[in-house]
Amino acid sequence: MPYLVNTSAPVLVTGASGYVAGWIVKKLLERGATVHGAVRDPKDEAKVGHLRTMAENSPGGLKLFKADLLEPGSYRPAMRGCATVFHTASPFKTDVNDPQADLVDPALEGTRNVLQSVNDTETVSKVVLTSSCAAIYGDAADCADAPGGRLDESVWNTTSSLDYQPYSFSKTVAEREAWRIADAQSRWKMVAVNPSLVIGPATQNAPTSESFSIMQQMGNGTMKAGAPRIGLGVVDVRDLADAHLHAAFDPAAEGRNIISGHETDLVEMAKTLQPTFGSHYPLPTRALPKSLVWLLGPMLGGLRRKFVSRNVNVKWRADNSKATRSLGLTYRPLDVSMNEMFGQMVKVGAFDD
Ligand code: NAP
User: Where in the numbering of this chain does the NAD-dependent epimerase/dehydratase domain appear (predicted)?
Assistant: First the structure.
């Protein structure tokens, strides 16, 4: 579906320093948009330097603003005059001490905070919420309970909690709250983008997204004896950025949208790296037996037994046809995204000790 980026008003991207946001900002700048990037510290060059460089080399313009998900009203200055808001900011990490404070509060309070400012900012007519497939399912085993054995946009994650898969829980409660706020008014329209695991190269040199931890473990020897065959979906970060732009500017976009290019698992993903990187890096070449992962997972990789039972050797299935059809999306091949991501990590020294 063709769409035109509206360059007549600025566009706000929350969490502009992030991995996913980097490509959204880049594509907006390339199309001539004026981007208001909301970040925690606009003076932190390590976090925002790549965005400034992008802007210098693009027809669009960039203005950075300081904002924090936990500070009410802090996105208001960045939102002033904007017609479109991309709300991507939300912590994506799995190793946290306090799931409520580290994940749920920023995700949920942050969503309330941003959308309250949208309510107060008359110029905004469109919000694109970066939700996740994590708001649709908790474990790969949940796919079996979905209509026809495949997740679709009608499904909500009911199996994650503060104690089990708290990141997924944070994305679920945040998206539910976003729809509650959006449905309580009629001035602005919201479209949710629900990506599976995001892979592919970053626009920054030192990305902190959890996406990179998985790749790190594949290349640094953590999985050299083999990988647990955890079923999951993946999507390239550039295809996901395109999906965000479609969601914002294509009038056909609506509701929730599963954005996922491939149904795969960790072993299959690692295998795509073998031809180019297999002789130099201790990549996993085989699947670990589920019984062994169940036995040793809690000690080795912090994999809980419930997680192992419900995800290892369990196929992940999702129906991505809604977004493919209505947004006209196409997806890069898995091996391209994997090799470009891993190659970039090699280049910046991610596996050097
Ligand atoms: P990321 O690089 O870690 O980006 C997260 C962004 O959120 C960063 O800009 C971060 O700012 C910001 N943030 C975190 N806590 C904040 C706070 N208290 N106040 C203000 N900003 C805060 O991770 P990502 O992978 O790009 O994730 C971006 C979005 O995509 C998230 O909503 C995530 O849930 C969603 N998503 C990601 C994946 C994936 O596989 N990567 C899959 C599905 C959905 P700092 O740079 O200052 O830390």
Answer: 11-253
Q: 154-181 pLDDT, tens per residue?
A: 999 999 999 999 999 999 999 999 999 9
| CATH code of residue 70 | 3.40.50.720
The verdict on residue 2 lying in a domain is no
Q: Where are the alpha helices (DSSP H) in 145-265?
A: 166-183, 211-219, 237-249
Q: Say if ligand 1 is within 6 A of residue 40 CB.
A: yes
* Helix (H/G/I), strand (E/B), else coil: 156: coil
- Ligand 1 mean position to 272 CA, how many Å? 26
Using only the alpha carbons of the chain, give its radius of gyration.
20
Range of the domain at 191: 11-345
Check 171, 189, 271, 306 and give the catalytic one.
171
Which atom of ligand 1 sits closest to the CA of residue 41? 47
Which structure tokens are listed for 241? 């950025």
- Domain assignment present for 4: no
Catalytic (active site) residue 26? no
117 ligand 1 Cβ < 6 A = no
- When divided into structural domains, the chain yields a total of 1
The structure's pTM equals 0.98
